[in-house]
Design goal:
The complex is a heterodimer of chains A (146) and B (230). Chain A is of the alpha+beta class and 146 residues long. Chain A has 4 helices and 5 strands. The N and C termini of chain B lie close together (10 Å). The chains are: A alpha+beta (146), B mainly alpha (230).
Chain lengths: 146, 230
């Protein structure tokens, strides 16, 4: 009951403080591991943004933008992990990495997947990246042929 | 002048379309909780065609609690909050026993829409980084929002950022004044919709467009109610 109230009250009495300050910005990176002790996998950006988007694509995304909206949810999860770590948020990110990596890459040597969170912020004229979280390696689900 | 009933019906149609767009993204796109959003889509079709309107709104409210629990809050922050605020105010208005209470519930939505612009402007203008254009530069430079790497180059255009920052802040702060005149309000809402469309193009925030537009009939109705003929 209290949980439900805590979810509904911010909807009924929103703060509307959009972009009050520009907070450190999360990036999710992931890698494959062959076993728990391996350190070989290169970190890769999760769903890297494209170099350019055409005006037609921008207009089209007014009506159809599921991946980007899911990315924004991943950002929310990353911010929750940084502020108050919850298994739920870690699982949400892990599931998406597993789903995407399974669809794009399948190496028979790969056994585990791991992700980390970087937070980018400005320090004077420089941009600084801080690693704030590294997940435990999670087993990659195996298909019937593996 | 827009009557309360016409404004409520217009809001129902716009909200139903916004929910259908959102549900389609879950069901056919990200496939996050697609079964949950299949239910929302079915209810939204009922709302769109005015079938058992008040009961459908009530069902959507109950359903929203499951969605909030599923994602531990709104899936997409401010846009989902506005969508649910529209839903809750609309539902309250439909279920209130007297005309006066119906107006209070729907009027609350209009007041929140005005505040959504005014408070956003107020928190920015007291921040020196926003006044200098630096904050908007940071949005383009390192925030997660620019939809393409090429847009990050806009962080290197300080004069453009300064003009854009002040345009946004002044528009948001002055938005409540448009409420004094019907014609001015329509113009302000067109500008506001354009602002949301620009945010959707540059930052991918497409859901803001549909949920904020769904809230606009409440403002048009309240303006006519408070300033008849004005």
């Amino acid at each position: 009951m209290w949980k439900t109230l805590s979810l509904i009250l911010p909807v009924l009495m929103p703060s509307w403080r959009f972009f009050k300050t520009i907070e450190p910005s999360p990036r999710v990176q992931w890698r494959f591991l062959t076993d728990k002790n391996a350190t070989t996998g290169d970190w890769q950006d999760f769903r890297p943004r494209p170099q350019a988007v055409t005006a037609v694509q921008m207009i089209g995304r007014l009506f159809w933008n599921p991946v980007w909206n899911d990315n924004l949810f991943v950002v929310s999860c990353a911010e929750r992990i940084e502020q108050q770590r919850t298994d739920r948020s870690i699982t949400e990110i892990t599931q998406r990495i597993l789903a995407d990596s399974d669809a794009t890459q399948m190496n028979p040597q790969v056994r585990l997947v791991q992700f980390r969170l970087l937070f980018v912020h400005r320090d004077g004229a420089d941009l600084v990246e801080d690693i704030v979280f590294v997940s435990d390696p999670v087993a990659q689900p195996r298909g019937p042929s593996c | 002048m827009l009557t309360l009933d016409a404004a409520l019906r217009a809001t129902e149609i716009l909200l139903a379309l916004a929910f259908l767009q959102q549900s389609a993204e879950y069901i056919f796109g990200s496939r996050a909780a697609w079964m949950l959003f299949g239910v929302r889509a079915a209810l939204s079709i009922g709302l769109l065609f005015g079938v058992y309107g008040a009961w459908v709104l009530l069902a959507l409210c109950v359903h929203s609690i499951f969605v909030l629990h599923r994602f531990q809050g709104p899936y997409n922050g401010g846009s989902d909050r506005m969508g649910l605020l529209v839903l809750y105010c609309l539902s309250l208005s439909r279920w209130m026993p007297t005309a006066a209470l119906q107006e209070v519930a729907f009027g609350y939505l209009a007041v929140q829409v005005i505040l959504s612009y005014f408070i956003s402007g107020q928190v920015k203008i007291i921040n020196p980084e926003w006044r200098s254009g630096r904050a908007l530069g940071d949005v383009f430079s390192f925030s997660v929002y620019p939809v393409a790497l090429s847009l990050r180059a806009l962080a290197l255009r300080p004069r453009l950022l300064w003009i854009a920052s002040w345009s946004v802040m002044l528009f948001e702060l002055l938005f409540p004044l448009s409420f004094l005149n019907a014609g001015l309000l329509i113009l302000a809402l067109i500008l506001a919709a354009g602002f949301h469309i620009a945010n959707a193009c540059l930052f991918g925030l497409n859901r803001f467009v549909w949920f904020w537009v769904a809230s606009y009939p409440s403002l048009l109705w309240l303006q006519g109610r408070v300033f008849p003929g004005g």
